[in-house]
Amino acid sequence: MLIPDNCTTAVNHSKSDWYTTTLNTTYHEMAEHYNVAIVPARVRKPKDESAVEGFVGKIYTWITAALRNEQFFSLSELNTAIREKLDAYNARNFQRKECSRPSIFLGEEKPLLALLPATPFELTEWKQAAVQFNYHITVDKIYYSVPYQYIKDKVDVHPLYTQAWQLA
């Protein structure tokens, strides 16, 4: 499960309300392709993301404090030093547990990981078309028939899969 910000690239704000969010079509297709659930954080609910943001802040402070007196002459040197400090931070045991982040990942999370799909996700473009009185829509100068119930409605059309249209 992924919990991104409630940003415009992920959420269709015109179709969402205060309590439920509606993902953008392309974002939803990507989630289905990779077989993950995407639940954007709620608007004005900082506790939805607080654990991650707090953890990022701790790591940022820990690494910058450790490297504040060092001087680097290339980006690769800096990245190498950051990676070393990050690995050292992750290797430390938790305060109240006798384990570290890598040991929890290897013991609990790694066995549950699934393989990625054989083909990578490809971005596609959705178009909008109005259903005409003759039960057809026009996509790229080609006519496609639509059930008569949708006359005068606007539908979202996927040009690669002309059977894949949704009521807008």
Describe the protein.
This protein has helices spanning 25-34, 50-67, 75-91, 101-109, and strands spanning 127-130, 136-139, 142-145, 154-157, 165-167. The longest helix is centred in the middle third of the chain and has 18 residues, at 50-67. The two termini are 27 Å apart. The protein is α+β, with helices and mostly antiparallel strands and 168 residues long. It has a three-stranded antiparallel beta sheet with strand order 1-4-5, with no helix packed on it.
Features:
168 residues, alpha+beta, 3 domains, three-stranded antiparallel sheet, two-stranded antiparallel sheet, 4 helices, 5 strands
Query: How is the quaternary structure best described?
Result: single chain
Straight-line distance between termini = 27 Å
Overall number of strands: 5
The ordered H/E elements are HHHHEEEEE
What count of domains describes the coordinates? 3
Helix content: 25-40%
Q: What spatial order of strands do you see in the largest sheet?
A: 1-4-5
Radius of gyration: 24 Å
Count of helical stretches? 4
Reported for the largest beta sheet, the result is: 3 strands, antiparallel
Uncertain ranges: none
- Relative strand content: 5-15%
Can you tell me the overall shape? elongated
Fold blueprint:
Elements: H1 25-34, H2 50-67, H3 75-91, H4 101-109, E1 127-130, E2 136-139, E3 142-145, E4 154-157, E5 165-167
Helix pairs in contact: 2-3
Short note summarizing the structure:
32% of the residues lie in helices and 11% in strands. The protein contains 4 helices and 5 strands.
